C-alpha cells in the first residue's frame, strides 16, 4: 500500500514538474508584436436600393432563368456552353485542384506511416564511432572494415496539434475550396448570360434585316418609278439619283447587319467551345416580351444570391483561418516519431530477434529566436485579410450599383418603348390614310409605298429599344445572381 502511495505521489510530482517546466518554457517562445485589428465589413443599410426604382414585376430569378423565354434554341446553346465552354472547364479544374489541396493539408495532420528498407555497403572508419568494427578479428566476431548493413521496418510520425495550427490550415484550405465552388457558379452565370446576350443580339439583327428588306422593296420601286417618269420627261433626273442613293443606303445597312450576325455567331462559337461545324444553325424567332423582375428589397439576400460575393466571402473566412494558423505558429509544437524494424551490420543477422530495433522519439520545437519571421508572417496574413475585406466591401457596393443602374435603365427603356409604340401608331395612321387615298385613286402607288418608309423607320427604332430592354433584362438577371442561392 505504501509502495502504491509512493508511486502515486511520484506521478503527481512529475505532473507538477511538467507544468512548471511548461510555465518556464512558454515565456521563451517568440512574442506577437504585429497583430492589427480586422477591418469592418460593410453595413447592411448600404445594401439597399433607392425607393424610386420600380419595375412591373417583383422577384428573384429562377435557377434556370433562361427557360422562361421558352426558346428551345437558346436552351440548347446554353446547355452546350455550360458543358463545353473552355472557361467552364477551367473553373471545374480549379475546383478539383482546391479539393486536392484540402486533402494534402488534411493528410499532413494525421498519422503518417511509411515502410523503410535500406541496403548500405559501407567501409567503417577506424577513427570513427564504429572504429572497433574496422578490425578484422574473426575470433571476436569482427570481420571489418567492409560491412553490408540492412535496415527494414515501419516508420511513423504524428504532429500533436495542441494549438490548432493544423486545424486552422485545414479550415483555410476548405474555405478556398468553397470559394472555388462559388466561383464556378459565377462562371456558369457569366457564360449563360453571355450566350443569351449574343443569341438575342442575333435575333434582333435578323428582325432588323427583315425590316430593312421591306424598306429596300419600297426603295427599289421608287427608283423604278422615278426612272420611268424621268424617261418620259415628267421629272428631273435628280429625283432618280436621290431615290437610288436611298436604296444604296438601305443596302449598305443590310450588308452591315449581315456582317454583324456573322461576328455574333463567331463570338457564340468561341464562347460555347464549338468547332467550325459545331454550332447549330440559329433560326429567326420573335423577341420575347420583357419579364424583368426586381425584388422589393435586397439587403443581405443579395449576398446569398450573388455567387461572386459568396466566393469573396469564403476567401475572407479563409484569411481568418490563416491568421489563426499564423498565431499558433508562435507556440511550441510537438511531434512523435517512431520506428519498429530490424537493423544489422550483417544481412544474415537481419531478421533475427537480436536485430530488432524500436525507436520512440517525442519532439518539442520552440520558436525562441524566430519572432521576426513569425511576426512578418502574421502581419502579412492580417494585411492580406484586411485587403480581402475591403475588396469584398467594394464588390458588395458594386453589386448594388449594378442592380440599381440596370433597374433604372430598364425603367427608362420601358417608358421610352411605350412612347415609341405610340409614335409608331401615329405614323401608321398617316400611312393608312395615304393608302386609303391610293385605293380611291386620289394618289399614286409611289406615294402610298413611300408612306410606309416612316413607319418602317419607327419600327426599327422600336426594335432597337426592345433589343436594349432584353439585353438590360439579362444584365439584371446576372446582377441578381441568376437564381444562385448559397447553401446555409
Q: Can you offer a commentary on this structure?
A:
This protein is of the alpha+beta class. The chain has one domain (31-109, 161-331, 367-479): Outer membrane efflux proteins (OEP) (Up-down Bundle). The chain has 10 helices and 6 strands; from the N terminus they run H-H-H-E-E-E-E-H-H-H-H-E-E-H-H-H. The strands form 2 sheets. A 4-stranded antiparallel β-sheet has the order 1-4-5-6, with no helix packed on it. The longest helix is centred in the C-terminal third of the chain and has 69 residues, at 371-439. The protein is elongated, with a radius of gyration of 40 Å. Residues 1-8 and 10-26 have low confidence and may be disordered. One of its GO terms (molecular function) is efflux transmembrane transporter activity. Belongs to the outer membrane factor (OMF) (TC 1.B.17) family. InterPro entries: MdtP/NodT-like, OMP_efflux. This is Outer membrane efflux protein MdtP. It is found in: Cell membrane; Membrane.
Secondary-structure map with pairings?
Blueprint: H1 2-25, H2 72-84, H3 86-108, E1 112-123, E2 136-137, E3 142-143, E4 146-160, H4 165-231, H5 237-272, H6 301-305, H7 307-328, E5 333-344, E6 356-365, H8 371-439, H9 445-450, H10 452-479
Antiparallel strand pairs: 1-4, 2-3, 4-5, 5-6
Helix pairs in contact: 2-4, 3-4, 4-5, 4-7, 4-10, 7-8, 8-10
Offer a concise description of the structure.
This protein is of the alpha+beta class and 488 residues long.
Which features would summarize this protein structure in a list?
488 residues; alpha+beta; 4-stranded antiparallel beta sheet; disordered N terminus
Amino acid at each position: 500500500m505504501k509502495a502504491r502511495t509512493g508511486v502515486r505521489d511520484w506521478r503527481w510530482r512529475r505532473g507538477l514538474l511538467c507544468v512548471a517546466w511548461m510555465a518556464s518554457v512558454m515565456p521563451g517562445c517568440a512574442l506577437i508584436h504585429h497583430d492589427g485589428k480586422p477591418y469592418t465589413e460593410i453595413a447592411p443599410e448600404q445594401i439597399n436600393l433607392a425607393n424610386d426604382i420600380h419595375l412591373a414585376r417583383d422577384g428573384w430569378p429562377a435557377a434556370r432563368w433562361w427557360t422562361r423565354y421558352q426558346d428551345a434554341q437558346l436552351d440548347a446553346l446554353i446547355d452546350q456552353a455550360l458543358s463545353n465552354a473552355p472557361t467552364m472547364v477551367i473553373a471545374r479544374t480549379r475546383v478539383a485542384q482546391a479539393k486536392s489541396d484540402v486533402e494534402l493539408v488534411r493528410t499532413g495532420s494525421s498519422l503518417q506511416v511509411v515502410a523503410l528498407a535500406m541496403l548500405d555497403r559501407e567501409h567503417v572508419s577506424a577513427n570513427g564511432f564504429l572504429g572497433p568494427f574496422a578490425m578484422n578479428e574473426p575470433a571476436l566476431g569482427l570481420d571489418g572494415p567492409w560491412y553490408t548493413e540492412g535496415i527494414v521496418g515501419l516508420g511513423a510520425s504524428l504532429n500533436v496539434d495542441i494549438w490548432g495550427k493544423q486545424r486552422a490550415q485545414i479550415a483555410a484550405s476548405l474555405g478556398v475550396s468553397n470559394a472555388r465552388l462559388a466561383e464556378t457558379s459565377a462562371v456558369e452565370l457569366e457564360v449563360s448570360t453571355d450566350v443569351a446576350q449574343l443569341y438575342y443580339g442575333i435575333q434582333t439583327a435578323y428582325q432588323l434585316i427583315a425590316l430593312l428588306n421591306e424598306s429596300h422593296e419600297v426603295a427599289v420601286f421608287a427608283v423604278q418609278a422615278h426612272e420611268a417618269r424621268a424617261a418620259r420627261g415628267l421629272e428631273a433626273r435628280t429625283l432618280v439619283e436621290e431615290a437610288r442613293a436611298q436604296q444604296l443606303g438601305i443596302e449598305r445597312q443590310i450588308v452591315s447587319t449581315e456582317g454583324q450576325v456573322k461576328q455574333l455567331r463567331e463570338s457564340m462559337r468561341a464562347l460555347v467551345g464549338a468547332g467550325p461545324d459545331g454550332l447549330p444553325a440559329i433560326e429567326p424567332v420573335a423577341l420575347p416580351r420583357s419579364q424583368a423582375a426586381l425584388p422589393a428589397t435586397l439587403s443581405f439576400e443579395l449576398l446569398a444570391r450573388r455567387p461572386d460575393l459568396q466566393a469573396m466571402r469564403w476567401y475572407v473566412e479563409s484569411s481568418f483561418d490563416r491568421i489563426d494558423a499564423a498565431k499558433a505558429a508562435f507556440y511550441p509544437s510537438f511531434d512523435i516519431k517512431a520506428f519498429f524494424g530490424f537493423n544489422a551490420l550483417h544481412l544474415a543477422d537481419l531478421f533475427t530477434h537480436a536485430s530488432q530495433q524500436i525507436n520512440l522519439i517525442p519532439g518539442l520545437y520552440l520558436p525562441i529566436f524566430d519572432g521576426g519571421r513569425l511576426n512578418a508572417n502574421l502581419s502579412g496574413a492580417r494585411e492580406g485579410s484586411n485587403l480581402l475585406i475591403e475588396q469584398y466591401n467594394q464588390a458588395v457596393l458594386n453589386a448594388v450599383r449594378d442592380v440599381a443602374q440596370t433597374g433604372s435603365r430598364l425603367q427608362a427603356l420601358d417608358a421610352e418603348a411605350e412612347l415609341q409604340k405610340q409614335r409608331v401608331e401615329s405614323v401608321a395612321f398617316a400611312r393608312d390614310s395615304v393608302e386609303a387615298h391610293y385605293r380611291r385613286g386620289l394618289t399614286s402607288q409611289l406615294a402610298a409605298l413611300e408612306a410606309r418608309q416612316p413607319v418602317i423607320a419607327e419600327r426599327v427604332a422600336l426594335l432597337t429599344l426592345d433589343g436594349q430592354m432584353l439585353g438590360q433584362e439579362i444584365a439584371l438577371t446576372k446582377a441578381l445572381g441568376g437564381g444562385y442561392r448559397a447553401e446555409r
